[in-house]
Give the backbone structure.
Amino acid sequence: MDNRREAIRGVAGCMVAAAGGAAGMLAWAPYGRHGIFDGFEGESEWNVLLLGLPVMTLSGMTAGLALFALVQGKWRQALGVAALLAALAGFGVAFDVLEGPPLSCGPGC
């Protein structure tokens, strides 16, 4: 009976991680579309794809796992996953992984 309960928790954890990864991709999509297709003077910002997509996907997965650990009452695991999430956020800010094209200045530029 105990093995069955652990298996259900494992499957639920995988589903939460997959849902978090999908949410991260959906959050990345507007930045990716603007960075790749609407680049300044036809230039694409490939860093949005090469760095932004993995960081946002991993961040969504870690946020889901942190919430899953909190729901289960595993505070140490939740704190470790939250530290990983903070490291991913720091990496994203340091390398500006969601950098899009510059905003247009309007008519007459």
Observations:
- The helical segments are 2-37, 47-72, 75-95.
- Residues 2-37 form the longest helix (36 residues).
